[in-house]
Structure formats: structure tokens, C-alpha cells
């Protein structure tokens, strides 16, 4: 599904070159559930941005679902981000004036889906994360965990081949964070490919593979046993 070969992302800062990513070789298969970890400045956010087609490598190759990302123009990249990748952020990124249903259907508006189908699919996505009874609630009327569930529903709305989650439990308490991770576990068991950035070992322990970065390079890439349900 994803193949990276000799991938580099370098930034020029004055007279110095910062190697945010340096010769990364990675492969992700369909249905993998992976945590990307590392200290501040290790390159994990840069890697996530490149995987999500929000940034481009300085050199090397990145192939997504059989297509070379470097060969895509801006319109193709925008289409990939909207249709192939679902994003879940630590800060939720919901529109406060819109209710849950409207927030979740936004990607479908950009995709040109008609109103009746948008509503049906948005309702189904919210039911999938246990919020079928909160369709008309606005973000300010929800708990932090419920808001993140809405964000996950929005990420799922286009049936993406890949879900990218950047510190998805960072603003949540431990109990609520574990509830969110249970949802990711269910999504993974259903065949979704999930890559998440986290600095928390207990959150990473829910996944089946942990990649640790340091100074722009892969320090460890370890498979782990699946957690009991």
C-alpha cells in the first residue's frame, strides 16, 4: 500500500541543512496498525505530513497505492487527501458552529456528493463511532472524547484506504483516551489501515507495530503481539 525508498526531507536554515528525514525505507501493507514514535525533532511529524501528501520529500520515492506521489500535481494531491486519506488531529479541527452531522459531511461536499447521500453516509459514520444520538449537537455541547469521535467519523466518511492520527489522545484523559483507542482497534480489525503518531507508550501498545525515529532515521521497527480485546 505504501512504499518509501531512500526518502529524505531536508530544510535549509541559513547556512545549515536540517535533515528532518534521512534515507527512510518503509513499507506499510493494507490493514496494518502502526504507531510512529520518537522525541521532539525526530522527524515523526514530517513523516506523517509526507505520508498524508501535505508535504513532499526532497529526494527518494514515495509510492501510495501503486502511484508515485512525486508525479502528482496539486489537484491530484488534493484529491488523494480528500478521498484516500482520513485525518484525525489532536486539536479535533471541527467547526464550532456546525453540528456533528454537518461537520462529518464536509469532505463529501468537497467531493461533490449530493445532499441526501451526504446525510445518509454522515449518519452512518457517526453511528459507527457510537454517536448516532448526537447528530444535531454542536462541538461545544460534547465531551472531549465525543468530539474526537466526531473527528474520527469525519475521517471515515470517504471510506479512505488510510487513516492518519496525530496524537489523537493528546487532549484526553486516560479513560477517554483508552475509549478512543478501542475505536481504532475496532477499525483496524475491520480492515482499516491506521498510522498514528504518539509519544505515549501505553497508547502505542494498542498497535501491532511500533516505529521509533531518532534524528530523522529509523531507530527501531518492531512488530508486537496483538492486544487482547
From TrEMBL:
InterPro entries: AAA+_ATPase (IPR003593), ABC_transporter-like_ATP-bd (IPR003439), ABC_transporter-like_CS (IPR017871), MacB-like_ATP-bd (IPR017911), P-loop_NTPase (IPR027417). Pfam families: ABC_tran. It comes from the Bacteria. The keyword Zinc does not apply. SMART domains: AAA. Residues 2-228 form the ABC transporter domain. Gene3D superfamilies: P-loop containing nucleotide triphosphate hydrolases (3.40.50.300). CDD domains: ABC_MJ0796_LolCDE_FtsE. Keywords: ATP-binding, Nucleotide-binding, Transport. One of its GO terms (molecular function) is ATP binding. Belongs to the ABC transporter superfamily. This is ABC transporter ATP-binding protein. It comes from Prosthecochloris ethylica. The lineage of its organism: Bacteria, Pseudomonadati, Chlorobiota, Chlorobiia, Chlorobiales.
